Amino acid sequence: MKRFFLIAITLFFSAFAIAQSDTSLHLIKTIKGDIASFTVDNLDNIYILNSQNQLKKLNENGDSVAVFNDVKKFGQATLIDVSNPLKILLFYKDFSTIVILDRLLTIRSIIDLRRQNIFQAKAIGQSYDNKIWVYDELENKLKKIDENGKLLMETPDFRLLFGDAPNPQKIFDENKLVYLYDSSRAVFVFDYFGTLKNKILITGWKNFKVSGKYIYGSGGDTLHRYEISSFLVDDWKMPAELKNALSFNFTSDRLFALNNGELKIYTYH
User: Fold this and answer.
1) What is the pTM of this model?
2) Are 256 and 38 spatial neighbours (Cβ–Cβ below 8 Å)?
3) Number of structural domains, the chain?
């Protein structure tokens, strides 16, 4: 029998203060090459996806440590989740497939979500216990599966709670909470039982990321950092060399910016 999560009636809305901050950026490295997209883990390892859909892992010094070439049969990767550096998730939305890699980018397992009756997976994310969160867009449910694709938990249809269900583009599991980011509406925050704990009124942020005690993002010529406990947002105006960057990523003390085939790495405070 499928186990249903509990859903709370009470909804808390997070207000937040906005502060204009000065930040000091120091360029420490530039990586050049065929870089279509990238992400970083909490150890500052860099994962680069090139135009041929090859995935390469670099260490914090920019040295290559692993390559994943078995990509053609899966199509274009939609998302790379590296929140656990020992277990990398590649999500291929068009094929409803998740490929699980180890730290050396060797395949551990492949999950065909369609075989688990998940036909429209909108977003995925790693869970705290090394399982996988999946948002099923067809059923409007947040589900948890294991490495074999077995369904472990699921919520009731979110339309029963919200009327108009969220449309999350990103899922993050951080500090005992699950964050679903719908860029047009809000960040929906749940506990591990599916109880809605909070709704953070952040919309329109690009390069959205939840890491540690912060939510990061960007918009226009501004970088954003939201402190979850205090509801405080720091807004940093980008230096001129960053304003045309295609994408950003953030760790606790580094900013990564991609533009014109160059990945620039900065320290900041």
Assistant:
1) 0.88
2) yes
3) 1
